[in-house]
Amino acid sequence: PDMIWQQEVLGKIGVNLIYGCFNNHDDPERLMTSIVDNFSSDRIEIDMFRLEGPAFEKIDNRLMSLKLVKHGLTKVAIFDQNGKVKQPSSFLYKKNICVLRGRFRPITHVNVDMMIAGVRQFKKQLGEPLDVIAEITLKDLTMEGNIDEQDFLDRVDLLNTLGQTVLISNYHEHYKLAVYLGRITRKGKIAFILGVNNLARLFEEEYYTDLPGGIMEAFGKLFAANQQVLVYPSKNESDKEIQTIQNYKPADNLKYLYQHLITNKFIQDIDNAKTENLHIISDRVLEMINKGESGWEEYVPYKVTHLIKEKKMFKYSGQTAKV
Question: Which of 11, 100, 246, 294 sits at a 20 to 30 Å CA gap from 156?
Fold first, then answer.
């Protein structure tokens, strides 16, 4: 908050960088974290980290971006469809963006249709260009308390091969990501693509106990004037009924709030979804790949199938299990 303090921080960063280049050049992760040595957590944020040059030819900067978020040096990292690390504040500045949050483990026909149908609808409303982003939270990358770095790179490779920009965030709650993106895009419009199950989680009040204003405060941040949620349908396994925003029932004390959001188009159904694919479940597809079961290929795009087999992702062995 003070110019003298900013000058002091810049001086210390310079010293740390020189020290790191001499002593940590053979350990990229330590080189990155050493930049903030002797700083308190509120003095500096590193929103982009990229290594280039002959000494770092074997370094995958997407992995360095993940570690930037993992170590709490920033909340968000982003790289384009070519895997090149970008600075979020400049890459997203004043842009309209459509965000699909997911695990993408693996990407199925449902994920692809969510993106295509949601973007088509948002673009029709806007009448302006927009950027499309696939977002993965740090929590969805963590298994048994640890991050599987190869699994992370596999998922990013799959998204990149489909031409997607990838964003990694440490914002599990939707409203926190909405606040961050709204601050960067300024007057740009934002749409979040969610499934009906994730819509239901939005209306679970226990997620907002840390906010003084509870769910009302969270929704005030999520449903700002330039932000909306587009909901992709799902199929009820028990009776095969198609679930949309029309037949979703929130708790009684929230039903009028829900109706207000629908009436004012803050929450909208995604039209023209391919409901014939709603039987495809990512976890089941992943299980089939892990166990070497045949037939999983029909549930994912061709490019995804090819890459999974080529790089043996998700424990793919190339052998079909005998039943």
Answer: 294
Predicted TM-score (pTM) above 0.85: yes
Q: Read off the amino acid at residue 89.
A: S
In the chain, where the domains are located: 75-277
Distance set, CA 154 to CA 209, 280, 311 (Å): 35, 20, 8
Check if the beta carbon of residue 196 is closer than 8 Å to that of residue 248.
yes
267-269 and 227-232 as β-strands: parallel, antiparallel, unpaired?
Answer: parallel
Instruction: Provide the 10 A C-beta neighbour count for residue 1.
Output: 4
User: Splitting the chain (323 residues) into consecutive groups of 10 residues, what average pLDDT does each group show?
Assistant: 87 94 93 90 85 90 92 92 90 94 94 95 90 92 82 92 93 92 89 93 92 95 92 84 93 96 96 92 93 93 95 84 49
- What is 75-277's CATH topology? Rossmann fold (3.40.50)
- Round to whole Å and give the CA distance between 307 and 254: 44
Nearest alpha carbon to residue 65 among 16, 29, 22: 29
Q: What is the DSSP letter of 206?
A: G
Classify 2 as helix, strand or coil.
Answer: coil
